[in-house]
Amino acid sequence: MSTINNIFVVAGESSGDQHAANYVKEHKKVNPEAVFTAIGQQELNNSGANIIFNSEEISVIGIIEVISKYSKIRKALNIAYNHIINSKPDLIVLVDYVEFNLKIARFAKKYNIPVLFYVAPQVWAWREKRIKKIVEVVDQLAVIFPFEERIFKKYTQNVTYVGHPLADDPRFKPTDLKYNHRMTTIGIFPGSRESEIRNNLYRMIDSIRIVKNDDIYSKNIKIFYANATAKKLLVHLLPEGWSALLVDGKDLSEIKKCQKVITASGTVTLELAMMNIPMIIMYRLSPFTYFIMKHLVKLKYIGLVNLILGDSLGSQPVVKEFIQPDYSDEVQVMVELQRIDNDISYREKIEDGYSQVRKTLKPGAAMNVAKIANKMIR
User: Fold this and answer.
1) In the chain, which end has fewer C-beta atoms inside a 10 angstrom radius, N or C?
2) What Cα–Cα distance (Å) separates residue 323 from each residue in 49, 104, 190, 273?
3) Which fold has domain 172-360?
4) CB burial class (10 A; 0-12, 13-18, 19+) of residue 376?
5) CATH topology of domain 6-164+363-376
6) Given 3-state DSSP classes, what are the helix, strand and coil percentages for the chain, each rounded to the nearest 5?
7) Across-strand partners of 95?
């Protein structure tokens, strides 16, 4: 007979919310009587979890941006702490959103509540030594990239490569793109967080405006929003007439109509690779945040496709990256977009890289996490 267990799930942003929701659905198959309470967004709500705080309010990146949201972040933490004290969950499952979630992990440790961290902190990018502190407060780590397991196992054996969530989703099958120079469509993904959108949107639009001088690209533009909050902000920020180009970022049928995409960094880059859609990464932080991160981050690339392929890339990434872009970069983005259209061998190189990524990522992530979680419950 199944035991009723109370599980507290915390996901801070759109991609984590989706991963968390998939986990909840799979855990219910393992233990149908489990009860889930969450800090999360719409997908977690749809999965049947009881949302006690909407994490769209605290989804930010960057030092200055975090400071601007400090009061809401503190409110969310207090809600989480009170829930832990009053409900004493049998397990806490933290999904991504490292700084916020590690505070919850430390707090849970005081009450001897087991913690599973799914989509483990990417501290290997700039603070690998911090892993020692993470394993002190996290009981199990579930990582979604094979290279992460190798890194974390230097510090703990309580880490498992569970696979990647996208490998389970049949919607992300490769798209057979047809290139027609008179009807090519460009997609724009400016990010899911408010700070990302504000930092990236105008640079992306300016790049498109350069391209739009060529009537080949006239009007064939789609701007994708990650959630309702992002849509509202985009409507406010977009130039007159551009809001009509907005499309739901969860509508894969619309994404698959794009022959190429300009995107911020994040999970969407992997989704595009899974669907075989060529992309260019443009990513801009606030000047202060960039100054700090430039001296801390050790990675050569930020795009997940390039990170997964790692040393096999040689000197050239599969996906072009423009970090802190200026006007000259916007011109280069135009050149890159046209190269995707005109250079068959270049497109084939991109598609070969995407194929390698798809082979690297194994399926079964959400169910594997559910099995680990179920074993951890006391």
Assistant:
1) N
2) 37, 32, 13, 19
3) Rossmann fold (3.40.50)
4) middle
5) Rossmann fold (3.40.50)
6) 55, 15, 30
7) 11, 118
Token pair belonging to 94: 């933290």
**Beta bridge partners of residue 6, listed in sequence order:** 35
Q: Where in the chain is the domain with CATH 3.40.50.2000?
A: 6-164+363-376
256 vs 367: CA distance, rounded Å: 28
Tokens for 277, please give them: 């859609």
User: To 10 degrees, the CA torsion angle through 363, 366, 367, 373?
Assistant: 140
Sheet with 140-143, edge to edge strand ranges = 50-54, 35-40, 6-11, 91-95, 115-118, 140-143, 159-161
- Residue 108: what residue type? A
- The 10s digit of each residue's pLDDT in 106-149 is 999 999 999 999 998 777 666 667 788 889 999 999 999 988 89
- Which tens digit of pLDDT belongs to each residue from 272-311? 999 999 999 998 876 666 666 665 666 678 788 998 887 5
Handedness of CA 23, 24, 30, 36 (dihedral sign): positive
